[in-house]
């Protein structure tokens, strides 16, 4: 174990500790979810903002990831060409998904992998359960997988008496605290170290007054390892499924996915049917983009390729639809299936950074969540499309070039046409209100809005679904840099740097135009 | 209809129509700053790995790097070690390994990664359960970038292949970087040509 503040890999970011607060600031909890009732994002966001230490740590941590991502991008001349390639490969694959699924399945079966198909979450959970029953398996270790979150897998297994152990540190923290992940890459990023110390003290019996991060991480390592050594089944997700050779690629930092897949005699991988890419060579492009976009690191510590079971072991792939085939047919929203779950759009989003992932009350949060969640439950997530400034920053950072902010806007139109316009209006004014009532949040929103004027199609600025385009309010001329941006860029005038001359280039802090 | 038939039918019915050609793979040249090995070692350092200097043979290099190691498991002919990998019954049996020594199939300058293959590491869990990992790399096996690496035929030949880029790491708590998350605590590369 070592700590090096200068390294830029794994998920490392803001290394300075926020001093422990006395009395401890309680962790704000997520949105209150009541069945199908529309989730009230702004109510939960207001509570997150009302916890300044949490809000500040969360905001600066994710902004740091965003800035590291920019640094990586600037180091690669062909960045835009890589994005274009990735986007086109994904569009092509989705347009020919039937053939590629057939090719992938045939190759996987030829490699000795058992392939299963699940129409929905329930079927996925039953399949895994029945594989386990067939083998008399009782315990399962798993690495992080948003798909299994989507399927409510842990809850299901708890119901049938099978213990599921999360092996990723952040995901384990969330499991022990009985909370879902708040972020698709760093699941416990909304928690302060003191919150983690409390959770571990309660559940693992660690010292509640020791919130030293090394101590906490080491405790989890030591407590999890025996569970890994004894597990009957290991489960992973898949970042990519390669049609050409029937392999899956899994990208992680902690080594836990490889332990989960390699130590038990049975490996089960849950794979969304949209994860397919045609060729091994395409991985060269996607792997170059993924971790750089996500965490600003050149690559994850581990990029593993599972093509078949090792001698004496078994490998099972569960191909999951759960609404994907239906979304594929949606003219406006199908391209959201290109998402490679890098989280760049979340890290850059001023609303996400200041409201925390749990305030969305959904499996997927942040900009990508706003366009995925309503496809799963339109009523429950009807207010989410308003949790955005439409500043376009998400679209600019997306490595597969999904037009995220335009799709969010399209969802507002859908919601407005299906609901009382008064409700829609109230929701959007409230969402804007929460962000604007907080000074730091307001500054970011202003910065976002200014730039949005340069990137948004004019219709999005004009029509009354945009909270900044109320009747009688002129669209202001966007200044190239706000005072606060200037202050941050120059450290209050101490650093004498020129703002890039190009009018397209935005400010010194958000160089994501184009 | 079976789940598979139903999903496939829905997929085929809903696939977006239109012209979406598959782009050719373009391998972009990598600026290696004049020295591929240095480029690799630099990026290995960025990812938290380091070089194991071998002056007096591998055996003494490993011994002086890990003087307290009780169990050394070697999958390479260059080092004997004291755990026979050919007789390991269960993957979990390697939980007590202090130092694992393996050889990389290839290495990647761009990211400082080493590519480990099932046939070379003998027992897959070895390179995760060990506390420390030493990887032998032949400088001639270093390729410039990830895109070059993915053109290797190895990807069609192995059931299991993994890029390791530095040691296991996490920053899940407040972004503080920790080496030795669930896998190895350190990763060192020894530049030793294949014999
Ligand atoms: S929508 Fe784009 S930026 Fe957001 S998680 Fe998906 S791939 Fe990443």
TrEMBL record, chain A:
It comes from Naumannella halotolerans. Keywords: 4Fe-4S, Electron transport, Iron, Iron-sulfur, Metal-binding, Repeat, Transport. This is L-lactate dehydrogenase complex protein LldF. InterPro entries: 4Fe4S_Fe-S-bd, 4Fe4S_Fe_S_CS, FTHF_cligase-like_sf, Helical_ferredxn, LUD_dom, LutB/LldF, LutB_C, NagB/RpiA_transferase-like. It comes from the Bacteria. Residues 1-38, 466-514 are annotated as: Disordered. Residues 330-357 form the 4Fe-4S ferredoxin-type domain. The keyword Repeat applies. One of its GO terms (biological process) is lactate metabolic process. Pfam families: Fer4_8 (PF13183), LUD_dom (PF02589), LutB_C (PF11870). One of its GO terms (molecular function) is metal ion binding. Transmembrane segments: none annotated. Residues 481-497 have a biased composition (Basic and acidic residues).
UniProtKB/TrEMBL annotation, chain B:
InterPro entries: FTHF_cligase-like_sf (IPR024185), LUD_dom (IPR003741), NagB/RpiA_transferase-like (IPR037171). It holds the Pfam family LUD_dom. SUPFAM superfamilies: NagB/RpiA/CoA transferase-like. Residues 94-191 form the LUD domain. This is L-lactate dehydrogenase complex protein LldG. It comes from Naumannella halotolerans.
């Amino acid at each position: 174990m070592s700590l090096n503040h200068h390294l830029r890999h794994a998920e490392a970011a803001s290394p300075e500790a926020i001093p422990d607060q006395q009395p401890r600031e309680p962790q704000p909890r997520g949105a209150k979810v009541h069945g199908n009732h529309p989730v009230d994002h702004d109510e939960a966001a207001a509570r997150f903002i009302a916890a300044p230490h949490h809000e500040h740590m969360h905001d600066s941590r994710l902004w740091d990831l965003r800035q590291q991502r920019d640094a990586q991008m600037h180091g690669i001349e062909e960045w835009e060409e890589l994005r274009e390639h990735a986007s086109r490969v994904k569009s092509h694959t989705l347009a020919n998904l039937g053939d590629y699924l057939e090719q992938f399945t045939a190759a996987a079966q030829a490699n000795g992998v058992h392939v299963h198909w699940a129409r929905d979450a329930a079927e996925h959970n039953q399949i895994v359960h029945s594989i386990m029953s067939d083998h008399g398996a009782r315990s399962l270790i798993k690495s992080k997988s948003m798909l299994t979150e989507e399927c409510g897998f842990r809850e299901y297994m708890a119901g049938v008496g099978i213990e599921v152990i999360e092996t990723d540190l952040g995901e384990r923290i969330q499991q022990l605290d009985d909370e879902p992940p708040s972020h698709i890459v760093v699941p416990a990023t909304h928690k302060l170290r003191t919150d983690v110390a409390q959770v571990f003290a309660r559940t693992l019996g660690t010292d509640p007054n020791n919130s030293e991060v090394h101590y906490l991480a080491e405790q989890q390592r030591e407590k999890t390892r025996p569970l890994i050594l004894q597990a009957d089944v290991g489960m992973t997700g898949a970042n990519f499924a390669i049609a050409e050779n029937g392999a899956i690629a899994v990208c992680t930092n902690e080594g836990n996915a490889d332990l989960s897949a390699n130590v038990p005699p049975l490996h089960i991988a849950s794979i969304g049917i949209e994860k397919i890419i045609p060729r091994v060579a395409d991985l060269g492009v996607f792997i170059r983009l993924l971790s750089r976009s996500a965490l600003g690191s050149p690559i994850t510590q581990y990029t593993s390729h599972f093509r078949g079971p090792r001698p004496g072991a078994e490998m099972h792939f569960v191909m999951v639809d759960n609404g994907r085939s239906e979304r594929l047919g949606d003219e406006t929203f199908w391209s959201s299936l290109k998402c490679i779950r890098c989280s760049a759009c979340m890290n850059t989003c001023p609303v996400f950074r200041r409201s925390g992932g749990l305030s969305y009350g959904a499996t997927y949060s942040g900009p990508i969540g706003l366009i995925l969640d309503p496809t799963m439950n339109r009523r429950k997530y009807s207010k989410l499309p308003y949790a955005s400034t439409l500043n376009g920053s998400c679209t600019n950072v997306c490595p597969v070039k999904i037009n995220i902010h335009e799709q969010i806007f399209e969802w507002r139109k859908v919601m407005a046409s299906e609901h009382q316009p008064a409700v829609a209006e109230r929701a959007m004014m409230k969402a804007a209100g929460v962000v604007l009532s907080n000074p730091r949040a307001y500054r970011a929103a202003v910065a976002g809005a200014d730039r949005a004027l340069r990137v948004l199609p004019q219709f999005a600025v004009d029509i009354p679904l945009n909270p900044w385009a109320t009747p009688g309010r002129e669209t202001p001329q966007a200044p190239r840099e706000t005072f606060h941006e200037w202050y941050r860029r120059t450290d209050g005038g101490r650093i004498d740097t020129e703002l890039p001359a190009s009018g397209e280039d935005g400010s010194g802090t958000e160089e994501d135009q184009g | 209809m079976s789940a598979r038939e139903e999903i496939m039918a829905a997929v085929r019915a809903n696939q977006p129509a239109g012209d979406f050609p598959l782009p050719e793979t373009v391998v972009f040249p990598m600026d290696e700053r004049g020295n591929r090995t240095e480029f690799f070692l630099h990026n290995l350092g960025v990812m938290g790995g380091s070089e194991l200097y071998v002056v007096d043979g591998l055996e003494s290099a490993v011994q002086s790097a890990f003087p307290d190691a009780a169990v050394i498991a070697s999958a390479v002919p260059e080092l004997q070690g004291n755990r026979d990998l050919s007789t390991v019954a269960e993957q979990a049996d390697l939980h007590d390994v202090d130092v694992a020594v393996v050889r990389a199939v290839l290495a990647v300058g761009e990211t400082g990664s080493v590519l480990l293959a099932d046939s070379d590491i003998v027992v897959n869990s070895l390179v995760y359960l060990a506390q420390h990992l030493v990887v032998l790399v032949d400088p001639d096996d270093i390729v410039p970038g990830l895109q070059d690496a993915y053109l290797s035929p190895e990807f069609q030949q192995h059931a299991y292949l993994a890029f390791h880029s530095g040691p296991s790491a996490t920053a899940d708590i407040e972004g503080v970087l920790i080496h030795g998350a669930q896998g190895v605590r350190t990763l060192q590369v020894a530049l030793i040509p294949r014999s």
